[in-house]
Each structure stands twice: as C-alpha cells, then as structure tokens.
Amino acid sequence: MVILSACQKESESIFLTEEEQAWLEQHEGKISIGYTTDYPPVEFLIASDYVGISADYFKLLEVKLNTKFEMVEFDQWSDLIEAARLKEVSGITAATKTLERSKFLDFTVPYIMNPNVIITRKNFSEKLTFEKLSNSSMDVLVIEEYSIVEDLEKNHPKLEFRTVANTSDGLRLVAFGEADAFIVEVMSAYAGIEQDKMTNLMVNTEVPYDSNLSIATRNDWPMLSAILNKGLAQITENEKQDILNKWVPIQRKSIVENPYFWIILGTILIGLSIIIITVVVWNRLLKKAVLEKTEELISKNEQLYRTKKQLLEEIEERKKSEACIKFKSQHDELTGLYNRAFYNEQLEHFEKTKKLPFSIILADLNGLKITNDTLGHEMGDRLLIKMAEVLKASCDETDIVARIGGDEFVILMPDRTDQMAQAVCKKIKSACEEAKMDPIKLSVALGHSERVSLDMSLQSVFKKAEDQMYENKMNESESTYRGILESLKAKLKATTEETSE
C-alpha cells in the first residue's frame, strides 16, 4: 500500500452542515480510499505516482472539503472490491453501482461517464450483439469483478465468457488471437490500445450497459457518501472539463485545431490544382500521343511479356504469403500446436458430423506459474514447448493437438475409443517421466472421455474430460508440487555452491 500526500487545506468550508463538519473532524486521518494501478485514463501509476481522472478529482475534493484522505494502492480490482466488502478501506475512488455491490457500499452521483464496448480484431467484419455472442462459440472476455459481469449473468445467462485480471490482459489476448472479443469500458480500451500500440484492434460496437463511475463508500458510514456528494457538487464545470481535457485530449480539439484537418485540406487543394493543370497539359499532349502510338504498339508485346512474368511471380509470392498467414492464424506461436481458434472450428465441425467413436483428452501442465515466478518466463516457455513435443509425439497424425490456454492443452481424437484415449494418456505420462528437463520435472494432469452416443454433445464430452483432469490434478497435486519444490531446492543449492566457489 502506498499513502499519497494530501492537498493543501482551504481555510473555509461553507457548504457542509455543522454535523457533517464535526463528522469529518472526528474521522480526520481515518478515511482510506482504495484505488487501482492499471486502469488508465481513470487511474494508474506514472513512476510510482498516482495519476489519472480520479486522482485529480480527489485532489480537488481534499481542497473543497478541507480534509485529507489516505489513498491506498491495490494492484488488482478484485482485491480492492474484497477489501471494501470487509470494510478494510472506507471507500473506492471509482466504481459502477450494481445490486450486488449495493449490499455493502453506498454510491455518490456518477462523475465519470464511461460506456462499455465490444473490442475485436479489425479483420472481424460482422457487427456483434449479445444475442449473436450467446449463439456462437466465440471466446469472450470480461474483467473479473467488473459491473458488466453482473449485467451479463442477469440479462444474458446463455452467453459464455471468461474473466481476465485487467484491461491490458484482455486486449493482448484478443490482439494475439487467443480470444475473439473483449467487453470493456471504452476509456480503458482506447488508453490500452494507444499505450501498447495494438493497431489490429477496433471497437466493434457499443453495448447497452454503461459503467458510469461513482465514488463508493462503506454503507455503515452514510455521512461520508453525503459529504462526498456535496464535495463533487462544488467542482465547477470548468474544473471538470480541465480534468477531462488533460486525460482524454481528443475531446478538446475541434476540427480546425486538428493538424490532420489542414493536411487533408491542403491535399485536396493540391489535388484540384493538379487536375486543372493535367487537363490543360493533356490537351497539348494529345496530338503528340497519337504520333507516338505506333512506337508504343511495337514495344507492347515486350511489355506484355514482362508484365505477365511479373504477375506470375507476384501470384506465387501471394500464395506463399497467404499460406504463411493461414498457418499463423491456426497455430500457437510458442509451441507450434493448433491454437484455440482452430480448435473451436474443428469442434464445431465434428459436432455437426456426429462422428462415432470420438474421444477428447484434456491436459494441464503442472507447475507453470511457480516456474515462471521463480525461474522466469523463459524457463516456463521451455516447459510449454517440451510439453507440446510430448503430446504431439504421443498422438497419431489424425489426432488434433491444440493449446487452448496458458497451460491448457486439448486433443481431439476422431475414430478413437476411450480405451485408446486412456492408452495415449499412459504414453504421455511415461514420456513426461523420461523427459529431460533441468531443473523442473515435466508433469501434467490428464483427463479423457468418449462420446458414446450421437445424443451426447462434444461440450459435455469436453466437460467430463475436464472434470476428470481436475480430479487427477487434485489427486497428484501434493506429490507434483513436492517434486517441483525439491527441484527448485536442488537448483538453489547448486547455484549457492557455484557462488561459494
């Protein structure tokens, strides 16, 4: 937690009642307001300094209310919400009012208007709606504990989605093709796209649920919410506009202030001048062109030959480029296995063809997070690549092996029974035991299931395999993590001995 310095106090307060002033004095130094560090442009950190729209509003509130707040830093929104639920903080700088949150929080009037939008890649041409998302197999993301989650669960129960920790994670997953759509607040989306230069993303459509932001306070302190409402009312329209212009500068530029306006206008004027000059010159050159026509016809055959050869070369290069693009769109960049998008297409295909027998294997790489945290992501990537090699080597050419998550893999096995899938699982386990990985031992949790009748959906087969995989993971978790810890201790001991020498 980081405590920021308060603004200088004003000498007078003319809009609070005596009771409200007395309450503020009684709670001086006890009002803690939580904020998150990765929510631009609303609030974030620059060189460890708390900045953004909410930060500027609270600086003004400290002046208007002649008090100071203890500003408390949280890296994750879910942690901040839980702290507010337990009344470990007095309030939250910026939160959207929902029925669930209203059980333990009071909300001021909204002071930041922030609609939700659906973000997709630019090559996705279809305009999306919640109805279309509900009836598709698209991988949809939302931010954990955000108000849109409650709206979707209440109004669109058929829509399947998964959560991410923050805006940056969601945008990157969509940009890299590991997810299809991201429902997020428009201000955060634009800030994240601009910050990480994700030029392949776009706003597909605006959704009918706003995430307008209020100051949320613990509901057993109703006086605090009333005081903050009065403080917000004292902030002038000019002050509000100055804050908005500072963090969302695009809104303050009129068309004539935009340098691109003058560039476009100048280009149009130059273009018109060129057209006029061209018409005049064209009339003069027309006679000359007729005389030169004969010479042009003579050289035309040579030019056609060269053009045809060039076109054939370009077509060949385009075919190679298209094949490369298709491969990248269907494969995971790190492991070379099929990616989630290709897996979803194949699952939909096999669901329609009703193939029997058909088995699915789910695989979850053990120890990836602790490896990343202790030995770094390079070692974690080595584990993923080795796991992919083991899975590929253990399967037939007709099997489809895909990476569908950070440490999750799936194998689609047409014309394979559950007994065959079980044999493949044993083969994978043996290969993991024999794999040479230093210092971490390769370990995986597996689950398998078969579609035994045409009435069974592949989603239910997937779910059964997933449940078995989690059961396998729980049964082996103690021995798995004991082995990982022993490997880490051995690595640490070897490093210490090398340093001593």
Description:
It is a single chain. The chain has 501 residues and is an alpha+beta fold. The protein has three domains: 18-112 and 214-250, 3-Layer(aba) Sandwich (D-Maltodextrin-Binding Protein, domain 2), CATH 3.40.190.10; 115-211, D-Maltodextrin-Binding Protein, domain 2 (3-Layer(aba) Sandwich); 340-500, 2-Layer Sandwich (Alpha-Beta Plaits). 52% of the residues lie in helices and 18% in strands. It contains 15 helices and 17 strands. A hairpin with a 2-residue loop joins β3 and β4. α13 crosses α14 (418-434). The longest helix has 72 residues, at 259-330. The two termini are 40 Å apart. The model is unreliable at 1-13 and 250-258 (pLDDT under 50).
Give the strand content. Answer: 15-25%
What is the CA–CA distance across the termini?
A: 40 Å
Number of strands: 17
Helix proportion range: 40-55%
CATH class of the largest domain: Alpha Beta
The dominant shape is flat
Blueprint (SSEs and pairs):
Elements: H1 18-26, E1 32-36, E2 38-39, E3 43-46, E4 49-51, H2 53-65, E5 70-74, H3 77-85, E6 91-95, E7 105-107, E8 115-121, H4 130-134, E9 140-143, H5 147-155, E10 162-164, H6 167-175, E11 181-185, H7 186-196, E12 201-210, E13 214-218, H8 222-233, H9 237-247, H10 259-330, H11 340-353, E14 358-365, H12 368-375, H13 377-394, E15 400-403, E16 408-414, H14 418-434, E17 444-451, H15 458-500
Parallel strand pairs: 1-5, 1-6, 9-10, 9-11
Antiparallel strand pairs: 2-3, 3-4, 6-13, 7-13, 8-11, 8-12, 14-16, 14-17, 15-16
Helix pairs in contact: 2-8, 12-13, 13-14
